[in-house]
Amino acid sequence: MARRTSVHGEWSSKMAFILAATGSAVGLGNIWRFPYVTGESGGGAFVIIYLICVAAVGLPIMIAEIMLGRRGRQSPLNTMRTLATEEGATPAWQYVGWLGMAAGFLILSFYSVVAGWTLAYTVRTAAGIFDGQTADGVQAIFTSFIGDPERLLGWHTIFMVMTIIVVSRGVKSGLEQAVRFLMPALFVLLVAMVGYAMNTGQFEQAIDYLFKPDFSKVTWEVVLKAMGQAFFSLSLGMGAIMIYGSYLSHTASIVKTATIIAGMDTLVAVLAGLAIFPLVFQYGLAPSGGPGLIFMTLPIAFGQMPGGAFVGAAFFLLLVFAAWTSAISLMEPVVTWLVENRGMNRVKASAWAGLFAWLLGVVSLLSLNVWSGEQFQLFGMPFMDLVDWLTANVMLPLGGLLIAIFAAWVMSRDASRAELGLPEGMGYTAWRVLVRYVTPVAVILVLFNQTGLI
Ligand code: TRP
Question: Among 59, 184, 318, 330, which is most buried by a count of CB atoms within 10 Å?
Answer without folding.
Answer: 330
